[in-house]
Amino acid sequence: MHFTKAHAYGNDFLYADATEARDASLPALARELCDRHAGIGADGLIVFTRTASGASMQLLNADGSAAEVSGNGVRGLAAILLKEVGGNAAAITIETDAGPKRLTRIDRSGSRQTFVAAMGAPRDVRQVAVRAAGEPLEAVVMDFGNPQCVVLGSLPDAARFERLGPALERHEMFHAGTNVEFAAVEHRDRVRILIWERGVGPTQSSGTGSCAALVAAASFGGASRAAEVVAPGGAQRVEWRADGVYLTGWAEVLVEGEWLRDLPPRA
Predict the structure, then answer these.
(1) Closest C-alpha among 133, 135, 136 to residue 166
(2) Is 169 helix (H, G, I), strand (E, B) or coil?
(3) What contacts 158, CB < 8 A, 6 or more positions away?
(4) Does residue 87 surpass a pLDDT of 90?
(5) Contact call for residues 95 and 56 (beta carbons, < 8 A)
């Protein structure tokens, strides 16, 4: 099976055309491909079908579970599809389980392409009291096309992060699990985050997580509605406008190759 690997700020994905993976068990394939030691290694697998306006995609986390959307994942797919398109300006629409995402390329430099992505609007943004790993917390939860839980305040140390991340991801409050961000407002226009991604664990970056962190920080943490959101993998620009949230950042296509192992069959 032919595959491509791309990443955005260290949040890495493997991509395969749906025609090549049509007879495979996608959850099992995701687990095999994304394994960091016995596979290629990635945070997730995206299986896509080209369309007249871009592509439709299905996202599976590294553990084989399904996810609705990834801001960095859709940007990586756009970079793959536009890799041979010359010039800077170009636009593409990616259909996801969380709705269509329109991406406009505004720059390219070497292997990196920079996009502004219209990520849609958050829904049901609210503060909740939650107890996780024996600790009482105030969190901001929302639907951003996928479930998000943001804990505002000082960033946790490594031990607390490793304790609270999985406890919140699988908390009974979230029937399908949730993505988790810890967010510190450093300035009105700068928010720093750590990410525990549903079905993955710690990750270097998250597009939807960056968007959710900005929404939470602007709603309840004193941040501006336009800010730089800094994850371990780097900073992205997030703008919460009247018509939705816009995410600006780059993606880089790394490698194309052939997966030589037999594909796991559908049950």
Answers:
(1) 133
(2) helix
(3) none
(4) no
(5) yes
**Which residues does residue 113 pair with via DSSP β-bridges, in sequence order?**
108, 251
Confidence of residue 88 (pLDDT cuts 50, 70, 90): confident
Q: What is the largest CA-CA distance in the chain?
A: 54
pLDDT at 75 over 90: yes
C-alpha closest to that of 202 among 162, 246, 255, 159:
162
Listed residue (199, 20, 8) closest to 117, CA to CA: 8
- Per-residue pLDDT at 200 exceeds 90: yes
Q: How far apart are CA 58 and CA 127, in angstroms?
A: 30
* Structure confidence by residue, pLDDT tens digits, 116-126: 999 999 999 99
Q: How does strand 123-132 pair with strand 234-241?
A: unpaired
Identity of the residue numbered 138: E
CB atoms within 10 A of CB 83: 14
The set of long-range contacts for 62-65, using a CB threshold of 8 Å and a minimum separation of 24, is 62/30, 62/31, 62/34, 62/35, 62/199, 62/200, 63/30, 63/31, 63/199, 63/200, 64/26, 64/27, 64/28, 64/30, 64/31, 64/199, 65/27, 65/177, 65/198, 65/199
pLDDT band at 139 (very low <50, low <70, confident <90, very high): very high
Instruction: Encode pLDDT of 32-56 as tens digits.
Output: 999 999 999 999 999 999 999 999 9
Rg, C-alpha atoms of the chain: 18
